Amino acid sequence: MPLAQTATTVPVTVNADLCIADKGCTVCVDVCPLDVLRIAETEDGSKTAYMKYDECWYCMPCEADCPTGAVTVNLPYLLK
Amino acid sequence: MDEILDGLTQIDCDILVIGGGTAGPMAALKAKKKNPKANVVLLDKANVKRSGAISMGMDGLNNSVIPGYATPEQYTKEITVANDGICDQAAIYRYASECYGIIQELDDFGIRFQKDQNGEYDVKKVHHIGTYVLPMPNGDTVKKALYRQLRKARINIVNRYMATRLLTGEGRIAGAVCVNTRTAEFLVVRAKAVIMGLGAAGRLGLPTSGYLYGTYENASNSGEGYAMAYHAGAGLANLECYQINPLIKDYNGPACAYVAGPMGGYTANAQGERFIECDYWSGQMMQEFYDELQGGKGPVYLKLNHLAEETISEIERVLHIVERPTRGHFHKGRGTDYRKQMIEMHISEIGFCSGHSASGVFVDEHARTTIPGLYAAGDMANVPHNYMLGAFTNGAFAGLDAADFIADVDFAAYDEAEVEAERARVLAPTKRDDGIPPNQIEYKTRRLVNDYLQPPKVTAKMELAQQRFEEVREDMEQGMYVRDSHELMRALEASSILDCAEMAASASLYRTESRWGLYHNRVEYDRDDENWFCHTILTKGDDGKPAHRKQEVKPYIVEIAEDEKDAYNNQRVGASVAAE
Predict the structure, then answer these.
(1) CATH code, domain with A20
(2) Is the ipTM of this complex over 0.85?
(3) Is the pLDDT of residue B115 over 80?
(4) Do B89 and B120 meet the contact criterion of CB atoms below 8 Å apart?
């Protein structure tokens, strides 16, 4: 499969210490209009939300609706 | 996660509403209220809680017709003139007559509107003639308030399903084919009526930042409504009347002159001088904006730094909380302080959006399209300049009419082969081992849109665009490749975007005159009322390509005097005003 792996910095960051995906929370994933967030399992088995696809409208429901304030929406680098 | 599964389920409902943004929820609520026994399904490719153009909220109603401030006659006249005369006034007049009732309902939902000390609605003047702009200080609560109503009314909500094609039979609507955006499983919905509220074609042009999702419109509004209506055989009106908006450069969000204008802010050139009389968006205003940018007097700015501290604080409070709150982050990142600097503006990429212009699926004053049982409302339907309140109000009309329509009909029979053909089309990119990813198909399409379709429009450039689009289509149909169901959603969006790009070129070539200021500025042609005072209707031709016809503008309900017709053509500030 010749698809390239091109690095990109993503606008949405999640503070793993605050994220409660472990407890089954998927609020940020659910509310994203572009469906770009997912839950990842880290090496120690804990779960955290992360931005899987760099397809962000920087609209902010993920940040506004997060119950613990774990999510931050930055501007995509190309336009900030 | 996001793996591609094989599956097909069928469900039946009375009314299928596609799109859970603004028009869709109101349509569903109204239909259910009128006929509580009706099974109403509201479907969205995102999650209804936060989907659509007003995902984070809205800072105000831009077109409220409130007794004591404006009349339906005055509003109808204003929008007719602002849209260069090409509109069937019945839809605008009905909107203007009934939108006040919708405002009161929204108020009951808990969405508050700004009131003055006497408890009266605090309506502001932004348009050229009348007073229609009503601020929403808690506009960030709109979606949550709507969602509560949907739950209360027991509307069946289906999230993360993307409608890909409409089904028709017996000369009317029969349902829709949908695909799950997380699993690629199919859902065929049989419905007696279908209401489309799929928003603008907002991912048509490419923003100057080059970021595919840095669009003016919510980037999830990628034109599926236009594409599905086209493939189902519905008529689309005046697609050449593009949407182009003034915005904050790079951030690409609204500059919100409608908020800042009534508080003393204005659009200025590099010298800090006013050059347009009125900040209300029209093609004529955008032409002046474009001329200033191109004519050596740019950059163009939103000027607030002459205002008092308390005014600026109030503007910040509104603009940084509702509609596009990352705007505050953007300014902070660049060290822009409204008190000190002016805010650099630009013009947006092109799109289809009747919310601000007039390009859309053709509908009448009941939100009926040209296909019986199929309705459209909001940014994708052709009621001009209808903004958020238009989406709510016309959505309500669609829901009310659909509730009556289903009383007399059963499900229309459709050809099963259509479902199979659609499954094959949708899944084709999943059947390959290698190929072009959807983001490259999309980028190329949109880059070509900018190169060749952005006004001023030139015949030879638009014809080149058509050739290039055909090449991209060949690549897309023969070689697009996806690895998971999320990419499959993007592939389907790329297909809608390409359909819209082809329609934009074709519609623009058909109307051989200039109209709507910058929106349809064809440099080789002047305005031609004798031959082109009409709608253009685009349909899918027998050869599978866009076909065009003229359709008369229905006789006006509200007459426009000769000296009123040009109110929006004289936007440039005269020398004496500029010097003030």
Answers:
(1) 3.30.70
(2) yes
(3) yes
(4) no
Residue A79 lies inside a defined structural domain of this protein:
no
| % chain B with pLDDT above 70 | 99
Is any Cβ of chain B less than 8 angstroms from the Cβ of A15?
no
pLDDT in tens, B447-488: 999 999 999 999 999 999 999 999 999 999 999 999 999 999
In angstroms, the CA B80 to CA B63 distance is: 13
- Report the chain B residue with the minimal C-alpha distance to residue A53: B486
Dihedral angle over CA of B310, B311, B312, B315, nearest 10: 120
In chain B, how many H helices and how many E strands?
Answer: 16, 17
Give B224's contacts in chain A (Cβ within 8 Å). none
- What's the domain count of chain A? 1
The answer to whether B198 and B221 have CB atoms below 8 angstroms apart is: yes
Select the residue of B213, B325, B333 nearest A34 (Cβ to Cβ): B213
Task: Select from B211, B327, B483 the residue whose CB has the most chain A CBs within 10 Å, as the one to mutate to test that interface.
Answer: B211
Instruction: Transcribe B315-340 into DSSP letters.
Output: HHHHHTTSS-THHHHHHHHHT--TTT
Q: pLDDT tens-digit profile of B270-293?
A: 999 999 988 888 999 999 999 999
Tokens at B509, concatenated:
């070539």
Instruction: Name B205's Cβ contacts closer than 8 Å, sequence gap at least 6.
Output: B348, B349, B350, B351, B446, B449, B450, B453, B454
Contact A34, A57 (CB under 8 A): yes
Q: Is A33–B220 a contact, with Cβ atoms under 8 angstroms apart?
A: yes
Q: Is residue A49 part of a domain?
A: yes
> Which range marks the domain in which residue A57 is found?
12-68
A36 is written with which tokens?
A: 């770009």
Q: Helices (DSSP H) in B371-458: which residue ranges? A: 387-405, 416-427, 438-452
Residue A73 domain-assigned?
no
Question: Does an H or E element contain B501, and which?
Answer: helix B485-510
Question: Under an 8 A CB cutoff, do B46 and A35 touch?
Answer: yes
Flag whether A37 is in a domain.
yes
